[in-house]
Amino acid sequence: MVSNPPPRAGAGGTPGPVPPRLSGPPPPGELPAVHAAVICVALPGLVVSPEHGQLTGRGLEGFYQHGRRLLSRCQLRVAGRDPISVQGRSISADRARFLSVVRTSAGGGPDPELCVERLRHADGTERITLTSYAGRPVRVPVEIALGTDLADLGRVAAGRAGPELPASVHDSGMRWTSGNAHCAVTAQPPPADALASAGVLRWMVELVPGGSYTIQLSITSGTSGRPVRAAGQAVSPLPSLQVARAEGDDPRVAALWQHSIDDLRALLIRDPASPADLHAAGGVPWRCGVAPAESIWAARMALPLSTRLAAATLRTLARTQLGGSAPELGRIPGPLRDAGPFLPPGCTGVEATLAFPVLLAEARRWGLAESEVAALLPAAERCLHWLGAALGDDGYLAEPGPGAGLVRAETQAHAHRAALLGAELLRECGRPGADTWLARAKTLRDRFRAEFWVDDLGGGRPAAARTADGRPVPLLGAGAAHLLDTGLLGGGRLAPGLLDKAQTEQLARLLGGPAMDSGWGLRGLAVKEPGYNPFGHRAGAVRVHESAVAVAGLAGAGHEKEAVALLRGVLAAAEAFGHRLPEMYAGEQRTADSVPVPHPAACRPAAVAAAAGIHLLATLVGVRPDTPAGSVALHPLRSAPLGAIRLAGLSVAGEPFAVRVSRLGVGMVEQAAERLQLGG
Fold it and tell me: Are the CB atoms for 47 and 63 separated by under 8 Å?
């Protein structure tokens, strides 16, 4: 939706909190606060509303389609006054409900007589229903004032939207035009009066006691009168995202699972080059278009639900691979992402390139058809070709761009995982190069263990990076969690990690300690590190994606105590956010009477946060399939920290899969493809 999004925290923007504003545009370089906004999304449709529901045109408020604001102002007046707002909330990823009341007579006491319900949908519709609880018939005027600037979302976010455009009466509503952009609002039933000069539609509504009156608004773009829904409906949800369900002793399990799937489904968009291929946008409101690293991470964490999303995401990214000659051949392009106060921005395209063969290899384990694997294998080989050319003589991968020569620990983890899973993928598919990649992975592993570990009195820690001259950057942050994410090999085995056993144990202690575990999840930077800021998107805020990676990595390495503590923290935060996890929130320490503090610039929903909810709950049951070998293994958390849990409607080997874990931590497969055998 946004081809040139504004700078933002977490994607090359200015770190730190963004103070809320009551009115007026934000200063240059500052994003509007969205943490209190009620956001509806079913891409390419998006609606941003204040909690009271009246769209006033301030900040990001409005109906959007494909990144353009179709309607910025929609203000309702009943009986000559603004209704009194009593509640505004999301009821699903794509719908919101706003409830208000109206007093119609001065002598009627404190009780309101009219109830006004506004149901707002990301497809570009709003239904306004007035219900009378007065003891006599009521006749009230109703006005809806409309306006728009038809501005691009990027300009709106940067505070550079133009003035409202003049309206013209059109059909049973209003119409606006600016260049090639058009918007029309139609109302049913038709208004009794329409004032183009003020953009006002008027009705005279008569209500008997207990009676209701409904006005339906439809916002359309272009000249065809086609509603926003027509574009949104082109992105039908994957069937597997509709049937998957979770249940357990802890009621938060079902709520988080369903909301995570709902959010992920709302972010699915089509690749214009191949409309059959869906992938997840980064998040709203800032990254409504292609975000390579986040799309591929979301598809990877959602593998228990579907390999179709993984395949479509891989096909989409394969079409963006750079051609020509080395050193760029095979790399997936992507924007820079801010890495915090002490490291230069990193390239998300590098991360996506390294994740490509990993996702393909793991999707094959989950049941991606061999014909689809074969079609995507050349693109994975090009990714590995780029990695081979980019590896230095020391075996490390130094990213291009700012800070050239800097070697990040997180990037080495991605490269190591790509080498190991890529090697097994090549070998099992009968392609050359497997032994070479295994040797490269071993070289990287040996050097990393010796050169990236910083000894100290506390037992040591992995360096966050090494400078071009070999000096370590001894920062402890959430990026270290990626050192524990090893990847799934054949037979339900986990690939060896970059750290040895003793180093892994020490890292588990660090991630589970109070400096990193906020009680709500994993902080982006340890409390005692210089530059720590609980609102810093890479300097102390809890990023849900990295917390989920840490939980799964710790569980896979056998450090269940630390994994469970982090999992409980994120689950508690999810409950406080209505089970819709934002991209990030403040890393302030949890206390007995505290709640997680929202980050004003966080995307919500965000693809990686939605998929992280799925990944966290899937970690509880520990399904590790190997479809090519016809087996599936279960490695549930033995402590059963949330009691009994059941996941159904998963997909393994292309068929439905259901698994249950008892209160004793014993896993049992309830439904699976007949050709699958339960492994160890």
Answer: yes
What residues form DSSP beta bridges with 668?
Answer: 660
Q: HSE, CB side, 13 Å, CA atoms: give it for residue 57.
A: 19
Rg (CA), the chain: 26
- Whole-angstrom distance, CA of residue 390 vs CA of residue 566: 35
Asked if 652 and 624 touch (Cβ cutoff 8 Å), the reply is no
Backbone dihedral angles phi then psi of residue 503, each to the nearest 5 degrees: -65, -35
Query: CA of 295: how far to CAs of 310, 546, 645, 651, in Å?
Result: 9, 15, 28, 20
User: Is 251 strand, coil or helix?
Assistant: helix
645-659 pLDDT, tens digit each: 999 999 999 999 999
First to last CA, the chain: 46
Distance of CA 6 to the CA centre of its chain: 18
Structure tokens at 421: 């899973």
Taking only the tens place, the pLDDT of each residue in 154-184 is 999 988 898 999 999 988 999 999 989 999 9
At 23 the pLDDT is 37
Residue with the two structure tokens 């980064």 = 282
Structure tokens, 33 = 């606060």
Three-class SS state of 348? helix
Place of tokens 């550079």: 160
pLDDT tens digits for 522-553? 999 999 999 999 999 999 999 999 999 999 99
Q: Are 676 and 652 a contacting pair, CB within 8 Å?
A: yes
> Is the previous residue joined to 605 through a cis bond, with omega within 30 degrees of 0?
yes
Task: Kindly give, in sequence order, each residue whose CB lies less than 8 Å from that of residue 568, ignoring residues fewer than 6 positions away.
Answer: 641
Contact at 8 Å (CB) between 61 and 72?
yes
Residue 453 CA to residue 461 CA, distance in Å, equals: 6
The rounded distance, in Å, linking the Cα atoms of 181 and 151 is 9
Average pLDDT, the chain: 91
Answer whether 221's CB lies under 8 Å from 65's CB: yes
Amino acid at 59: G
% the chain with pLDDT above 70: 92
* Contact in structure between 581 and 262 (CB atoms under 8 Å): no
Model pTM score: 0.91
Domains of the chain: 44-232 (2.70.98.40), 239-671 (1.50.10.10)
- Sheet of 62-65: strand order equals 38-42, 45-49, 62-65, 68-71
Task: Find residue 76's DSSP bridge partners.
Answer: 144
Residue pair 482/532 in contact (Cβ under 8 Å)? The answer is no
Let me know how long the chain is. Answer: 680
Per-residue pLDDT, 403: 67
Contact (Cβ atoms closer than 8 angstroms) between residue 240 and residue 305: yes
Does residue 643 surpass a pLDDT of 70? yes
Alpha helices in 248-369 (DSSP H): 251-266, 292-301, 308-318, 348-366
> Which alpha helices (DSSP H) does 391-527 contain, by range?
409-428, 434-451, 501-512
Query: Cβ neighbours of residue 535 under 8 Å, at least 6 residues apart?
Result: 16, 17, 541, 586, 587, 599
Q: What are phi and psi of 400, to 5 degrees?
A: -75, 175
Residues 6+ apart with CB under 8 A from 290: 269, 271, 279, 281, 282, 316, 320
Q: At what angle do helices 501-512 and 544-556 cross, to 10 degrees?
A: 140
- What type of residue sits at position 607? A
Question: Of the candidates 202, 172, 171, 198, which has an alpha carbon nearest to the alpha carbon of residue 187?
Answer: 172
Among 250, 193, 232, residue whose Cα is nearest residue 95? 232
β 38-42/68-71 pair status: unpaired
- Residue 250: phi and psi, rounded to 5, are -90, 115
pLDDT in tens, 32-83: 889 999 999 999 999 999 999 999 999 999 999 999 999 999 999 999 999 9
Sign of CA dihedral 84, 88, 91, 94: positive
